[in-house]
């Protein structure tokens, strides 16, 4: 995506022929791991352990709780977010319209990929540093209003649907738009995002960001896989599975996970030799084909998961229409697994390049951050066996954790008589996701 002189492929090693693990072995091993995991769960995990977030966890170290819960810490994070945002605006407005401008790396690598890794390790990072939240709070303070309370109440029926549309707009710009690295186009996208967020915050208050900010929703979902949580105001350490179980079942949640999963799958598919030959021999433009394929991938991901979830039996107090939202939290580990598998080398290599270029934002030979001489090592490119293992393990572990989360939720939703056979439709969908995901990953 951000190719430049001396830069390896954005997603690391090449196609299947370059991988030391055969596609057949990887797929069969991954499917076997998922099926065996399910079998073990059925035998040994017969009661829900994380239903409704009842697993509180253990208190974090007192000094860590005190520091992270202090006003000074929260203000420092807000200042950090604003400094990064102002720097990004600076390079976007005054920087060169070329791929050497760090703006592209900040936008596509640090923001999109780095935010995921940071959230998985530290918790809801974007909520803590979001510049649009900070600006909205500043405007509210000047006007004497409460940033948590807007002019209107955010409609419950909207849920995460605006966030799903925002995420789709981002992946469309990155994967289907003709000029994803044209400075004017990316600046316009950012301007629209900031404008919509500020208007939404003024009208609906901070609840708008919790539900509708695509990056806050994305970051907060991935943060559920971190070991950190606040329970009754206290910082605790607990199982990511316990955190996952607390994801609210809101309208649009299935659309969010479908966009994230489907777009990552399309990104792999778009690099396959099959797709390259398809658009080279097609009578229509690649732009049209990419747009149709991206939409199809997201729709198919959402439809398959929704059908698999809806086919599972449920107690009388939960409708089949509600079931996909109840199980949607289980897709989050799969999303993180694919992000690691697909974007790890992009983040390390191009992210390092971005750090070097950020020290000379206008291309004038500056070294304002002292990082101008930093260069990526491309270590994974020279160790394809290690990278292949990391990719496969990330996908397999993501699916196994997803199976555990879905099984635990199923035990609280399924009637007693169906607690084994009732899970088979969803298991079939996850097996399909595992095999299809590895096939796409290896064909890229």
Automatic annotation (TrEMBL):
Official protein name in the record: Fenitrothion hydrolase
Q: What are the TM regions of this chain, as residue ranges?
A: 25-45, 75-95, 107-126, 186-205, 253-275, 287-307, 327-348, 386-406, 426-443
Can the keyword Transmembrane be found in this entry's annotation? yes
Is Transmembrane helix a UniProt keyword of this protein?
A: yes
Q: Organism source for this protein? A: Nocardioides humi
Highest classification ranks of the organism:
Bacteria, Bacillati, Actinomycetota, Actinomycetes, Propionibacteriales
Q: Which domain of life is it from?
A: Bacteria
The entry's keywords: Membrane, Transmembrane, Transmembrane helix
